[in-house]
Amino acid sequence: MDTLDFQSCIDACNACANACDHCAASCLQEEDVKMMARCIATDMDCAQVCRLAASLMARGSEHAAAFCRLCAEVCRNCGDECAQHEMDHCQQCAAACRRCADECEKMAA
Question: How many CA atoms lie within 13 A of 6 on its CB side?
Fold first, then answer.
């Protein structure tokens, strides 16, 4: 496994993790934080999964493809949750999650 083959997926995972971190932090600043609880939780899960997926790909792990399938699922879930909220940070996060899911599905295929 040549990590250069997966650089676009690694980049998408890192960008998604950063978008999720930003979204979670921004959600904590919203007036009704309780309403954002599921969004924050999915953001936190997604960021961690994306970082691990990027790490596995970067070091050429034999588990990278299997983990990227899980990452795509987590990203789709997070993207769906974020897309339900009108705030710009949520919409940007949803877009990053969808891009990452697409890249992970390609990588794992």
Answer: 25
Q: Which residues contact 40 (CB under 8 A, 6 or more apart)?
A: 24, 27, 28, 33
Give the separation between CA 71 and CA 76, rounded to whole angstroms: 9
The DSSP secondary-structure symbol of 84 reads T
Q: Dump the DSSP string for 25-70.
A: HHHTTSS-GGGGHHHHHHHHHHHHHHHHHHHHHHTT-TTHHHHHHH
Rounded to 5 degrees, φ, ψ at 13 are -65, -45
Summarize pLDDT for 31-81 with one digit per residue, the tens.
Answer: 999 999 999 999 999 999 999 999 999 999 999 999 999 999 999 999 999
Provide the CA 102 distance to its chain's centre, in angstroms: 11
Residue-wise pLDDT for 31-40, tens only, equals: 999 999 999 9
Q: Judge whether residue 86 has pLDDT over 70.
A: yes
